[in-house]
Design goal:
With about 170 residues, the chain is of the alpha/beta class. It contains 7 helices and 5 strands, in the order E-H-E-H-H-E-H-E-H-H-E-H. The longest helix is centred in the C-terminal third of the chain and has 15 residues.
Length: about 170
Amino acid sequence: MKKTLVIFAHPYFEYSTSNVELIKVYDGVDNLVFKDLYEEYPDFHIQAFKERKRIRDYERLVFHFPLIWFSIPPLLKLWIDEVFDMTWTMEKNHPLQNKDAVIIVTVGGKAEHYTAEGMYGSTLEELLKSLTLSLKVNQIDVKEFIAIHCSDDLTKFDLDTHSEKIKKTLNLK
């Protein structure tokens, strides 16, 4: 398995029964570090130098978060703003180049609401374009985009199914 950094950002984690269960897939996995941004930076004061140094060590980044007001959580946005250094994109072999990423987003709404014809008139991919574009500019290849809809109403069977998909995608078995 690739050396993986899971960047988890959920501002209301204690109220998310789905994510409490889903993040269990990361427990005890070799070559995987789980980082809860809201736990580590509750004051929103990100230690950019430390994070830039840490991120160099990983081959894969996993961004796991809930959709909040049609976007990524504010602390995740700040983390990207602080950690991703635009000067890196001008370097021949910069620290983010040739990494891959997996995006795991939990969504309270139904999948059919997130289509061009749906209630919001937009897809999740369109709503999260700032994240995927930030990764693309830094030559990080998004390998998988996992959307978990109706996340407030998932059954144990649903959670187990989504957990298995995450494990399979990340090759955690």
